[in-house]
Amino acid sequence: MTYYVSPRHRMAQRMAQLENNQRSAVHIPVNVFAVEDDYLLSAYVPGVDAKDVKIEVLEDRITISGEFPIFDNEDGKSLLEEIPSGSFSRTLRMPTELDASKAEAEVVNGVLNLRVSKAEVAKAHQIKVKIK
Question: Which CATH class is domain 25-121?
Fold first, then answer.
C-alpha cells in the first residue's frame, strides 16, 4: 500500500511544529554491507563529533545514537529548517548474531564507519566426516 502526503499538508505539519517549538525526529541514512565475517555500516552524521556518537551492539541489533548541534537564530523566525538538529537514534537488525568485542568505529568527514564481526555461532563451520 502506498501512502501519499501532499507537499502542502507536509508544509502545514512542519509549520505547526515550528510554532510549537517541536523538532521532528532526525533520520540518519545508513548503508550496510556484508563482507566475509563482518558487517560494514556507514552512517551520515555531519557536524557530530566522534565522542558524541553512542553505539550499542546487542545480540543481532546495532543502535547508533547521538545529537546534532542545534542551530538557533534568535534574530528572526525560521521559515525552513533542513539541516538536521537535535537527537537521533537508529536501530538496525542484522541477519546474524554479532560480536561486540571486535567492533571498530570512526567518524571521517561526517560519515560514521563501523565494522562489526559476526559472532562465532553465526559463522559456517566445516565438519570432517570420518570413514569407518
Answer: mainly beta
